[in-house]
Amino acid sequence: MTNVASQPDNVIEMAAGGTAPNLASRWFDAAPREISELQWERFRSSIAEIFTAFGMDLQTPGTRDTPQRFLKALYDITAGYDGDPKLATSFPTEHGQGIEAAPSQVIEGPIDFNCLCEHHALPFFGTAFIAYIAGDQIIGISKLTRLVRLFARRFTVQERLGEQIADGLIALIDPRGVAVHLEAAHLCTHVRGVEEHSRTTTTVWRGEFVDADLRREFLAEVRSLRRG
User: Where in the numbering of this chain does the GTP cyclohydrolase I domain appear (predicted)?
Assistant: First the structure.
């Protein structure tokens, strides 16, 4: 992330384009991760060694099980690697065939998300706003939250997260356009390094959102939803 000293938030825009995931790869329906009891115990032992070396006393009632709890929390936070087969459900649009109309946006947000930055394995967290212009299919509103969390619960970076959400929605329902707006705080800059308490904003555009008027409409709605 590049910090801009002259403004409190960082703003990065992704250009339209990009390659959508291949739906045949079943990226939303990945096989669950399998970790054996032997692996789990080895990981727990390694974490206990690290925590002890860094100064934690693991012989107290409050810390004795901390390595195990840490591993379980880490496993839960990265559950996005297990996929979400419920994302495969979509529905036909309800406008009649051949009906001409101005592009109509479906907008959802704010959707809360939490991630682990792949650079330092520290959390970053914030809100997502998603808009799409339907083609022949629509997706249930709750599926947009599922889509965000599928990609958020991984080791990632904010720029990639927005790209994956946009391209994932394209792979699922092939809409005429997609917009994704993310705002997040990063602990890797809050608690280490420059210790700057800024927020980072990224925006991704696809398809018909090349139109500046649609972009302005989306961003105006984001501001309204944020205030609400």
Answer: 45-222
Q: Is 115 a catalytic residue?
A: no
Choose the catalytic residue: 158, 163, 164, 181.
158
202 and 120 housed in the same domain = yes
Q: Are strands 137-138 and 199-207 parallel, antiparallel or unpaired?
A: unpaired
Q: What are the pLDDT digits (tens) for 112-128? A: 999 999 999 999 999 99
Q: Backbone phi, then psi, for 186, in 5-degree steps?
A: -115, 120
Residue-wise pLDDT for 122-153, tens only, equals: 999 999 999 999 999 999 999 999 999 999 99
Shared-domain flag, residues 194 and 151: yes
Domain stops at, among 55, 78, 101: 78
Domain that holds residue 69: 37-78
Concerning whether 188 is annotated as a catalytic residue, the answer is yes
Q: Is residue 84 part of a domain?
A: no
| Residue 74 neighbours by CB distance under 10 Å | 14
- The CA distances from residue 92 to 39, 60, 95, 150, 165, in Å, are 45, 58, 9, 23, 21
